[in-house]
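Recall the central idea of this unit: under ordinary conditions, the amino acid sequence of a chain determines the structure it adopts. In this exercise we apply that idea directly, starting from the sequence alone.
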Amino acid sequence: MADFAVVGMGRFGRAVARSLTREGQSVLAIDRDPERLRAVADDVDAVAAVDMTDEDAVGALRLERMACVVVAIGSRATEASLLATAILRRFAPPRIVARAFDERHARVLLAIGADEVLNPEDEIGQRLALRLAHPDLLDQIRLGENLIAEVEAPEAWVGEPLGHLYETHRIATLALRRGGATDSDPRPDERVESGDVLVLMGRGDTIRRVAALK
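Accordingly, the structure predicted from this sequence is:
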């Protein structure tokens, strides 16, 4: 039996299923449309043509043996995503992750049994807005008031040890990319070189300020 089940083989569901497979995970793809399943059959371990709003059919899948079930049903079937999530909770897989389309939908999904909800459109929009507003940050993930961000090292930092950056700015260096190599645990005494790309974690305002340095 697969480790992950992905329900709904629309564009988002297919992307999740294929990405999990590339990461070495075993995946069961589920959709009521056999044509959609044929599109991913060669990319996953198993497929099941099942209507996830049919409680008996869901029970027959034995999804409680999965590590996680992802409900990726599309926005045109909001009621089906809610019903599928509620039915899944009755069979108690260890973890249910469900796609939400707005805050109200997310609240309902959590109330009826989803362990985690996500809205990929919102997340993509937020990351795009941050990248447009702060072009000096190559990539970033917001963590409350903090950011994890990729920053091309400013010339003003060249020659400085990474530990000094923390002492001065309270910014931690999580990784260092130099040329084609990445050091995921750089030493505090490693000195910055021109062209380095640093993965930094710290307060968002501080990282944005230092990233704007030239």
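The chain has two domains: 4-118, 124-211.
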